[in-house]
Amino acid sequence: MNFKEADKYLFPNYARLPYSFVKGEGCYLYDEDGKKYLDMLSGIAVNQLGYNHPKLTESICRQAKEIIHISNLFYVKPQYEVAKILVENSCGDKVFFCNSGAEANEALIKLIRKYFYDKKENRYEIITFEGSFHGRTLATITATAQPKYQEGFQPLPEGFKHAKFNDIDSVKQLINDKTAAILIELIQGEGGVNPADKEFIKELYSICRENGILFTVDEVQTGIGRTGKLFAYQHYDIEPDIISLAKGLGGGVPIGAIIAKDEIAKSFVPGTHASTFGGNYLATAAAKVVLEEILSDGFLDKVIENGEYLKERLKTFGYLVKGLGLMIGVDLPEEISAKEIMKKALENGLIIGTAGKNTLRFVPPLIIQKDDIDLAVNILEKILGEK
Questions:
Q1: What are the pLDDT digits (tens) for 209-237?
Q2: 3-state helix, strand, coil in the chain (%, to 5)
């Protein structure tokens, strides 16, 4: 592939690396020259079942031969089937489908406002957290408490306040009679793979329940088995009012969703919110297979087991290792650039990511095995040994 030629026609908003992949199998990708790469990033926590998974591939091909899309003017059978699986395996009651994580969080924000409008309560402020990431639309970059994502897009929509992550006092200082909801990632992904403290979440949840504030969770990256449970909130003793999902739900096919309690979902009556493509045949046919595989006997146990194995192997480097399941970060010292390590890894056939200030991010396909983990750590050992 001619990368310079491609740059003539593409927007310059991605710092693309000069690699192009033509084939995937399991946890591995192959470039145009046939070189093999172990993928520990999985399309940024998207390809939960890896590449060319037989059941997922067969379902997508079969559905494409029948119907790809019709619109939500009609019932879509796999959409209902995926909604049923999500509801039966969560604390929610109703599901709305869209196409991405940003769209899911936009829907979540709109639903919060509409819910309190219907209750005739002048509540619209949403508290989010420093280091968070909720999407790239105007509302979701405002919810995202990182100035680097907001620069150049002012004026931003009103109604968002930012507290310090894992700091309950900073939340208390922001609550007033206009506070409608808390929106939180239980493990901040883009912020550096930062898990929420259990005691902090317990106090935060209690405050919400005592003050009629909705507790909403962004599970765009943490959901669909990534942390060793179907949803990250299941590691905490809580029941969110609204959950946003995307990334891993379609195994690579674009799809997003929110799950909400019935009382709240009722506020989305016809005409209030919609999505042309949301939950179409192709996307939900894929999502159904992903969910069935992840919920099959022993699958999530293996995610936990292999996640712990990866963490233990990474700890041998002597740096801080954090995360849950197969969502893991390694904080590097300032003198070692995470981005440079990522580039060196690519040269050596290993795909990893970066996050936060200087964190290596590991979000491999959930089907990864210990032999793959050993290979990844051995490659990193070689690279870090040269530092």
A1: 999 999 999 999 999 999 999 999 999 99
A2: 40, 20, 40
